[in-house]
Design goal:
mainly beta; four-stranded antiparallel β-sheet; globular; single chain
């Protein structure tokens, strides 16, 4: 059974940094892609993803330069580092997965499983 567990959220001051983790189990991690999404109210957007086969990543334009995605295949964990945190980063952050069929995480529809989310709240 695919399981994803996010952690690392919380209250952070604007300008600070934090790292979210997505711990995976129940599947062959290196054969999958992991995506990070965030939800503000009813709207959910994809912000980054990575292929665990080739470490190729993608970022939403608005987070490029501040967000860094990485995976540790040995630990079956994907990280999302957020630097220079801004008020607009306040959201629930989710990770999701699916089989990596092309080596490009942007080809995925992330139907393999979702985590329960972790709340990030930025204080000014």
């Amino acid at each position: 059974e695919v399981q994803l567990v996010e952690s690392g959220g919380g209250l952070v001051q604007a300008g600070g940094s934090l790292t979210l983790s997505c711990a995976a189990s129940g599947f062959t991690f290196e054969d999958y892609v992991i995506g990070w999404f965030r939800q503000i109210g009813p709207a959910r957007e994809a912000i980054s993803c990575i292929s665990n086969r080739n470490s190729r990543g993608w970022y939403l334009d608005s987070v490029k330069g501040r967000f860094t995605i990485s995976s540790d295949n040995a630990k079956k964990t994907t990280y999302l580092q957020i630097n220079n945190v801004k008020a607009e980063d306040t959201a629930i952050y989710y990770c999701a997965t699916d089989r990596d069929t092309t080596g490009d995480c942007t080809d995925s529809y992330f139907k393999g499983g979702w985590g329960q989310g972790t709340q990030v709240t930025v204080s000014s």
